[in-house]
Amino acid sequence: MIVNARPRARMLSAVVAALAVLALPTSGCDMLSAFRGEEEADTTVEELSGSIGPCLSWFDRGVVDVAMSGDGSRVAYIASRRPESLPEDAWRSGDRAVFVRDRTEQGATSTRYIASTWAPLDEIPAYSTEDPQRDGKDDAIPLAEQLQELALSDDGSRIVVGVSREGIEGGLAKLYAGSIPEDTTSTLRPPDGGLTVVPINTIQSAEAVNRFELSPDGSKVAAALGPRGELRIYDLNANVPIVYNLGDDNAVTISNELPPISTSILVERRAAILTGGSALHWSPDGTRIAFSRTVPVTTSYIQIVDVATGEVTTVRRIVGVTAPQLAWATDSASLFVLTTRLAESEAFGNSEVRRLAAEEDGEQLGSAMSMTREPHWRSEPNGLASLGNDRQFVVSLDGRIFRLDFPSDEAQAPRKLEFGALPSGTNIPAQRVLTSADADIAVFTVVTGGVVRVGQRAYVSQNECPEAPTREAQPTGAAGEEAADEEAPSPTAEG
Alpha-carbon distance 55 to 441, whole Å? Predict the structure, then answer.
């Protein structure tokens, strides 16, 4: 399965400009990666794959967001370059496309595009006119949708795409869901071309989607909506929303209809679950969702929602720390929590990772792992991701990536590992990193020469980069896409 360590930030331009040179780790078990890249005009011809260092390669350009299947065999991503099989007259400046890159057991890869920016589906109606010869239709204003974010089910068969649109502020306007075509020449497009709207929010009331996550089995979408991050679920198999309401007696009730649009300040509906817009984390068994809600700035509540009942469990209330980072344990019964203390003399202090029972006032299980702040650090650890063995984790910190190792024997001290420095001009903005334990790889976005690409790290759970295995020749990708040759990992040791 894939563990999500993503705060889905959308302010990429500023992030890219501010990034320092990063370094990468070794880890592996679920998903790592993502941040949004700047738009790039498709005006130059350049290589679509390359190598950055030992066990570290990249592919494509103009990357906006990345997702990966649980076994690491499929990577889907949004990029701002024109697919080679798409005619030039079908591509406009600012368009984006969704690509799928598949890997065989022998390591050969093929890349194809499955969707590109579609014609506007909504419009602002024109004002009526006195001219009887005109109905005002030509004056309607089309509302274009922009591909922004995506998610994959663990088996890589189902995809959810989030789009932005003019008139919807503070998040995404719509979510679309579909199945990735088995026919490698087919593409997806709404409203009747394989992508259908996920009716989890009310467009008419400009209700934005702040966060969304696909359940591990791909059957449900969880979303945080509006400025307070109201949690709703959409069951893709049953085609019904799951809306949690709070009754007069403060009991949670569940409705399978979206709330009515409020037309009066006298109409009051109370949402039962507010996330504050924080990251959503599905449990591995798909029955619960965890999040950390910070109110006010220095007080955080680690909470868990039972999807079936809407019951909310407060695992811990923590004071004096930055927003906690969460990762589920493989047993779906406990959580790993990364906290960083606020310090009077500095913006932040030392950090700790604890394992807490996923229950009310959850007790700490085992010893905590501490990370002592170093003087040159300019940020706090972010994006905790488990590698699937409940002992190794990945965090991004100060423009680099670290692996945290909990020893199996508590008598041994935990370790914090950082791996080889990257070439000048190469950055890894690891706001979201995806890992697969099955494939022992990490996927993320990487900036080389000012271009945002998909980065891939092999042997993430190991301390050295072993000799590269023999690989088959790369085939040509479907739908006219040339498969980007993946650089074989160098046998150079690291660490």
Answer: 9
**How far is residue 260's CA from residue 202's CA, in Å, rounded to a whole number?**
9
Does this model's pTM top 0.85? no
Burial class (CB in 10 A: 0-12, 13-18, 19+), 187: buried
pLDDT at 39: 43
Under 8 Å between Cβ of 305 and 341: no
Domain positions in the chain: 12-120+142-480
Asked if 486 and 46 count as a contact pair (C-beta separation under 8 A), the reply is: no
Place of tokens 């602002």: 124
Q: Which of 24, 20, 3, 21 is nearest to 403 (CA)?
A: 24
Residue 32 has pLDDT above 50, yes or no: no
Distance from the Cα of residue 324 to its chain's centroid = 17
Amino acid found at 383: G
Written out in words, the top-level CATH class of the domain with range 12-120+142-480 is mainly beta
Residue type for position 410? E
- Encode burial over 388-401: b for 16+ CB neighbours within 10 A, e otherwise: bbbebbbbbbbbbb
Enter the tokens of residue 365. Answer: 């299980």
d(CA 392, CA 5): 14
